[in-house]
UniProtKB/TrEMBL annotation:
Residues 1-27 are annotated as: Disordered. Keywords: Amino-acid biosynthesis, Aminotransferase, Proline biosynthesis, Pyridoxal phosphate, Transferase. Pathway: Amino-acid biosynthesis; L-proline biosynthesis; L-glutamate 5-semialdehyde from L-ornithine: step 1/1. CDD domains: OAT_like (cd00610). Residues 13-27 have a biased composition (Polar residues). Its EC number is 2.6.1.13. This is ornithine aminotransferase.
Length: 429
């Protein structure tokens, strides 16, 4: 081989790139064909129900064989406004045609107006745009630690954040470090230090866990992945009081509970509580693009200065345009009201099933956790049976089913979910 010459010349060398022949773009109407491909080539980090979706319209989804279902999961609440929401699709299409990415090396005509309206809706001075929920939580953790070091005066490296048992805040290595779900955590060490785990809903446990190095309490106002676990009345207000008194940030992860799901704009609003820091995600992207944000007042957010945090896609024009429209939609209150109204219908139907195959139900807005009587079937089995009845839902923690249909679901959609559930549990209407 001839001497390739000095390194700086190598970029000019001719490289032969062999074209890759991709397998045909063949399609099929046989669900199993897609299931086999996905199982062979996509990592098995989920255990999907055996349904292959191809199309969605509001709360109705259609599989590759043409069978329709009511979507009672709504992308874990990322689809609060339904599939193919006309307003959101139109805004996205217009933005696609004009500009999709600037990077924050430059200003964007879509960020300022969106940031103004989002902060107005939530009642904070400033927002920081990220993409996924886990990134927003990571950002909030960094924010709390830096605030602790620079404003509160905790020695850097000693900052502690109090978190809750049964939490779900995402999947990064730092976040799973303080998960209490063995499945989410096992094998991923070494774990990030600096977190103290206390019992959810127990304000005294928070008080007892506070040290001079505590910088924040991070919690979900309602634990979503935990199974729609609603803390005792007054808990959030008490956390607010303790954190204010102790000069600690109260950080509410509203990624799943926020943006209308519970019948209010934020789940914290139900108790009239205003946290110091909010994380938003999921529905913020309208089911179209991953969009998340951290919100805080200026006296906290100011610790992020040039070069201290960032994201290539965070605050991109397409995301901003879609999220801005989501904010405008929520400003009217109509979706929160719809969540209350449809939620009431759902709650009434579910309560009638307690003792009839359901051990307990927890409902807030259009969001429900149902504990299945495990002597009848597991949560997974119930979801498979619901699927056969034309309703898609997801089990969590063995025996719990979470229902979170789009806030735009119709009265008939909710009735269909209840009918299917009665059929699965063998209860006569
Ligand atoms: C889904 C969720 C996250 C993580 O969001 P991703 O977009 O999946 O990273 C964080 N916190 C809560 C409360 C969630 O429900």
């Amino acid at each position: 081989m001839p001497d390739p010459g000095p390194l700086s010349y190598r970029g000019g060398m001719t490289q032969t790139v062999n074209p890759v022949t991709l397998p045909s773009d063949e399609t099929s109407t046989d669900p199993q064909w897609y299931i086999d491909l996905e199982d062979k080539h996509a990592a098995h980090n989920y255990g999907p129900l055996p349904v292959v979706l191809a199309q969605g319209e509001n709360a109705t989804v259609t599989d590759v064989a043409g069978k329709t279902y009511v979507d009672a999961l709504a992308g874990y609440s990322a689809l609060n406004f339904g599939h193919g929401n006309e307003r959101l699709i139109q805004v996205a299409q217009e933005q696609l045609a004009s500009m999709t990415l600037t990077s924050r090396a430059f200003y964007s005509d879509q960020l300022g107006p969106y940031a103004r309206d989002l902060t107005t809706l939530i009642g904070k001075d400033m927002m920081l745009p990220m993409n996924t929920g886990a990134e927003a939580v990571e950002t909030a953790i960094k924010l709390a630690r830096k605030w602790g070091a620079e404003v509160k005066g905790v020695e850097n490296g000693k900052q502690e954040i109090i978190v809750m048992e049964g939490n779900f805040h995402g999947r990064t290595s730092t976040i799973v470090s303080f998960s209490t779900d063995e499945e989410a955590r096992a094998g991923y060490g070494p774990y990030t230090a600096g977190f103290t785990i206390v019992e959810y809903g127990n304000a005294q446990a928070i008080r007892d866990a506070i040290t001079e190095n505590t910088v924040a309490v991070l919690l979900e106002p309602i634990q979503g992945e935990g199974g729609v676990v609603i803390p005792p009345e007054g808990f959030l207000a008490e956390v607010r009081e303790i954190t204010r008194e102790q000069n600690i940030l109260m950080m509410a992860d509203e990624i799943q509970s926020g943006l209308g799901r519970t019948g209010t704009t934020l789940a914290c609003h139900y108790e009239g509580v205003d946290a110091d820091v909010y994380t938003l995600g999921k529905a913020l992207g309208g089911g179209i693009v991953p969009v998340s944000a951290v919100l805080a007042d200026e006296d906290v957010m100011k610790v992020f200065t040039k070069g201290t945090h960032g994201s290539t896609f965070g605050g991109n024009p397409l995301a901003n345009a879609v999220a801005h429209e989501v904010v405008k939609m929520l400003a009217s209150g109509e979706f929160q009201n719809a969540a209350q109204e449809r939620g009431k219908q759902l709650a009434e139907g579910l309560e009638a099933l307690v003792g009839e195959g359901l051990v307990a139900v927890r409902v807030r807005g259009l969001w429900a956790g149902l504990d299945i009587d495990t002597s009848l079937m597991t949560g997974r089995e119930a979801c498979e049976k619901l699927m056969a009845e034309g309703v898609l839902a997801k089990d969590t923690h063995g025996s719990t089913i979470r229902l979170a249909p789009p806030l735009t679901a119709t009265e008939a959609d909710i009735e269909e979910i209840l009918r299917a559930l009665r059929a699965v549990l063998g209860v006569d209407a």
